[in-house]
Structures are given as C-alpha cells and as structure tokens.
C-alpha cells in the first residue's frame, strides 16, 4: 500500500502539459467523501481557468481554498491540497461527474476514501422544505464522546432562510468554516479543508433547543451532541493547561530548520528581544490559521524587536516526510521565521519531556509561548480561534497584540 501511495505522489510531481480531457469539464461540483462506515460528507468544488490553466477552489462558507497543483491527463485529473498530506486522483465521466480517491496521510496507515463529484449540484438539497426555525446565535453545546464522557463547546450559527453557516468553538480552537442547510426541523453542516472532514447533523426542536445530534469526524470518529441557545455562554476552558514548571523560568532548546541548520533559543539573534514560540504541526488546520496570522504579523513587526520560532510536532518521526509537509506551510504563507522539526510526534505522550521539559504536558495545538527580553517565559496562550469564529478571532488577535506590546515596552 505504501509503494502504491509513493508511486501516486511521484506521478503528481511530474509536470504534464494540460491535455484536452475529451469529456465536458464543468465548473462546479457537489463532492462526496465516503467514510469507512459509508457515511458521506459533502463539500463544494469549483473550477476556474486562470492564466491558461485549471485552478480549483474548495468552498466552505466564506473560505476559498485555492488548489493550483492540478494535472489533467486524458480523462484523469490529479490534484493536491496546498497544505497537509492530502491529494486526489479522479476520473472524469462523460456526463461531467467525477469519481476516484481521496488520499490522506496519517500517523498510521494511509487512508483511501471513495470520492464522488456531481456536476452542477448544490452542497445540500432542501429535501424537507423551508426551515421551521431560525437558529442564528450562540449555543451551549454538549458533545458526548464514544466512551460516554461529555465535552463542552460553543456553537455560533448564522442562518438566512435555509442557508446555514457557523462553527463550534472548543477549549483549544474552532472547527473552522462549516456550511450547510436547515430544512424542515433538521440541520446539516459540513466542512473539508484537506485536514478535517466534518459533518454535523441534528434535529431542531424549537428556536432554543437542538437534540439528537451526530458529529461525524474524520474517517471513523462519531459522537453525539445536543445544544441549548444561550447568548451569554462562556467559552470552555482546557483542563490542566500547559504551564511552566516551578523550578524553571527559561527555555533551552536547539532543533534543526528545514535546511537542517541548528537553531537555538540561546542564539545571539534572540537576545534582548521578545520571542514568540509557536507549537504547531503541519497536519493541523488551526495551526494553519495561526501560521497565516503570525507570518503576516512578523513581516510587519519584526523591526520592533520581536522574533518568532515555530516548533513542529509531526505525524511521524520520518524527517524527510516531516520537512516536506512543513515546507508546504512555509511556502503557502511565505513564512520568514524559522520552522524547526522537533523530532517528536504530536501523538507521543513524552513529547513535552523530549522537547520542552521546562513545561508540564502540551495539551493542544497550536499553543503559543511568550518570552520577554530577559529570556524568561512570561505567558502561554493555549488556544487560537481562527477567522471562521468571527469576533473570537478578533479577540485572539487582540490578546496576542496586547501581550507582545506589553513585553516590548518593558
């Protein structure tokens, strides 16, 4: 299976002249990804010729994910996401539909998902007619795991007629852009970004109560959920968030960047400066949102005496695979601060002890550490809410600005 995947990736790397397909190539599709249990998760895919070549866009509410790595050979099309170990190989049908495979790299076996795309079809059909209720607003959400334990979240929804957009905010991050429909007394919300494949379904009892919800997450994940409308619901907090150990005050690490050049927090470059340490992984879509923000911020503010270092925790210890995946992030956002491979995987229970023993356990990605001009750890932010979260995104950015500005003034 691994050889098969490597062959496919090699094929994607070959530069093809875009050929005439020989079948009609439409400009919009309803894409279906089929989970291991047969449940189907949908998203919208659009095609737009740009500068003589095919460019694709994945649509999730306000998000437009541009895919420029598109190869058409005969009646086959190959494309890979601009971030993440995520790619597609599909066949174009005579009627404009497509079928094929979505390939996703994981920490274990590579996943091969059945892929179907239906030309000129909407994301969801209005099968049960007009919406009986409008659920716009903030919701107190309870998600029950497979083991019966409950975790809290905040739902933020905006509904116009049948159209529904929104997201769920967990203690560490948000579920990014979700788009769907309210039809009759039912809601459906889905999202795909190359990393996450998500589908929420539920029954709307009334304008203030959602029941019987099911959350399909990734290839096999499945949880139930309910919600009550609550305009003043507070964000849930992380249990036992990462903190500096009592006997520690400064960090001491050295890791290699993507060119395998060692970078240390003790390097002269970082002395007498405010340093932001980003704990991230190239498999993490919320880390992608934070990386875009940090990259833009660094370009504008580095002259003020601030530096940023990204420490990456990847899916495996395969150095070449990790470098290739992190490099996609670096290229996508033109990241000009060092991105270092820690060598510890995100799933390693000992990752903190192996990389940053001055801290208690890393609980979430991304996590952001702020170091003052004396080299001492001053603050830790264990969550980041991205642009899909609306005002919470603004709050995350303002919290970052306030922390950095305060440390720069000292």
Termini Cα gap: 56 Å
Helix share of residues?
Answer: 10-25%
Poorly predicted tracts of residues: 1-22
Quaternary: single chain
Q: Output the CATH class name of the largest domain.
A: Alpha Beta
- Write out the CATH superfamily name of the largest domain: Glutaredoxin
Number of domains: 3
Annotated CATH topology of the largest domain = Glutaredoxin
Q: Given the C-alpha coordinates, what overall shape results?
A: globular
Order of helices and strands: HEEEEEEEEEEEEEEEEEEEEHEHEHEEH
Could you give a short account of the major beta sheet? 9 strands, antiparallel
Strand tally is: 24
- Strand share of the residues? 35-45%
In order across it, which strands form the biggest sheet? 4-3-2-1-9-8-7-6-5
Mean pLDDT: 93
Q: Helix/strand-derived class? A: alpha+beta
**CATH architecture heading of the largest domain:** 3-Layer(aba) Sandwich
Textual characterization of the structure:
With 410 residues, the chain is α+β, with helices and mostly antiparallel strands. It has 3 domains: 2-119, Lipocalin; 137-229, Lipocalin (Beta Barrel), CATH 2.40.128; 254-409, Glutaredoxin. Helices cover 16% and strands 41% of the residues. It contains 5 helices and 24 strands. It has helices spanning 2-13, 285-301, 319-332, 351-355, 391-409, and strands at 28-34, 40-50, 53-60, 63-67, 70-73, 76-80, 86-92, 98-104, 111-119, 137-144, 150-160, 163-169, 178-183, 186-192, 197-206, 209-217, 221-229, 254-256, 262-264, 274-280, 306-314, 339-345, 367-371, 377-381. The strands form 4 sheets. Strands 4-3-2-1-9-8-7-6-5 form a 9-stranded antiparallel sheet, covered by helices on one side. The chain has an 8-stranded antiparallel β-barrel with strand order 10-11-12-13-14-15-16-17. The protein starts with a helix and ends with a helix.
